[in-house]
Design brief:
The protein is of the alpha+beta class and 163 residues long. The protein contains four helices and five strands. It is elongated and about 130 Å long.
């Protein structure tokens, strides 16, 4: 027995204990007074005044753009929204389609119309969007004769009387 005790040579237990007088850190047992944790006050810095009224955080309204694919239901249109997303493996952009039900109060949209979906409060179990008409885009190359007259202000050669 004395052989194993001599091999281990364990120090006495009193030398392992830490005395409370030797540790003088402010983090004793994980607690610190709040006055030590607060930021120091600067004479240059101005105090920040908090607003008296509570304002909710501003969120962007979600709006999507898509094409009407079904308009048979009353006051409801099905709109297909197409987005581009990277393929998980090949990283190529692929088209992802999703259909949304949107509220059409006047039944003004037909199949193929381009509409914008505005987020609203839920109207029914599946409808939380309102369909809004998107203005038509004018192409620069398609200029009719009447528009040509109005832009230039002079008649074209083909419309002038020959003398």
């Amino acid at each position: 027995m004395s052989f194993t005790a001599s091999l281990l040579q364990l120090p006495p237990l009193q030398s392992l204990k830490l005395s409370s007088t030797t540790t003088t850190t402010s983090f004793v047992h994980g607690s610190t007074p709040l006055s030590l944790l607060s930021k120091p006050n600067s004479s240059v810095a101005h105090p920040i005044s908090k607003p008296s009224t509570f304002l909710p955080p501003i969120r962007a309204m979600r709006s999507l753009q898509g094409r009407v694919v079904c308009a048979t239901n009353d006051k409801t249109v099905a709109v297909e929204v197409v987005r581009l997303a990277p393929h998980p493996k090949y990283k190529r952009r692929v088209r992802k389609k999703k259909k949304f039900q949107a509220h059409d109060p006047d039944n003004q949209f037909q199949v193929g119309d381009l509409v914008q979906l505005e987020k609203s409060k839920p109207i029914s179990k599946t409808k939380a969007f309102v369909a809004v008409a998107v203005p038509k885009r004018n192409s620069k190359n398609a200029v009719t004769e009447e528009e040509g007259k109005q832009v230039l202000g002079i008649p074209l050669e083909s419309q002038q009387s020959q003398t």
